[in-house]
Design a protein that fits this description.
Distance between the termini: 24 Å
Strand content: 15-25%
Radius of gyration: 16 Å
Shape: globular
Helix content: 10-25%
Order of helices and strands: HEHEHEHEEEE
Length: about 170
Amino acid sequence: MNADWDVTTLLEGMVRDLRPHVDPEQTAMIGIFTGGVWIAQALHRALGLKTALGQLDISFYRDDFSQIGLHPQVRASDIPFAVDGRSIILVDDVLYTGRTIRAAMNEIFDYGRPASILLAVLVDRGGHEVPVAADIAALRLNAAAGGQIKLRGPDPLRLELLTSPRTAS
């Protein structure tokens, strides 16, 4: 099932909400692979940030790594700036359990101690399992159990609501 969410409009709202928190000369941004990087690239451009965009692959930082195994497309993380004392905007596409964000923060702290981390997500779908909350969310939903919200892209970016078929008991 495809949803009728206009990602461009959602991104414009995120830019508007982020502007008061941004110093284009000092603020750094990090996107989480894959969808978070796509969103971060658009936000980074729109906000005119001067610091190069960082990218994280949190595969080795997940707390369920031993259960789910390695993602087939592990990429190298790239933080091209000093993290210590920096205000960072961490960007992901969909916030669900919060475990991806926790893993991303663990990795960021391996690079240094930021002054602050602001979390910006395209969709907060509810269902958090750890105490993580988005500071900026373009869309807040309560997706049905078993449903999945997926960002497709990178060009064009589009959101899909996927429902899983019911299983017989």
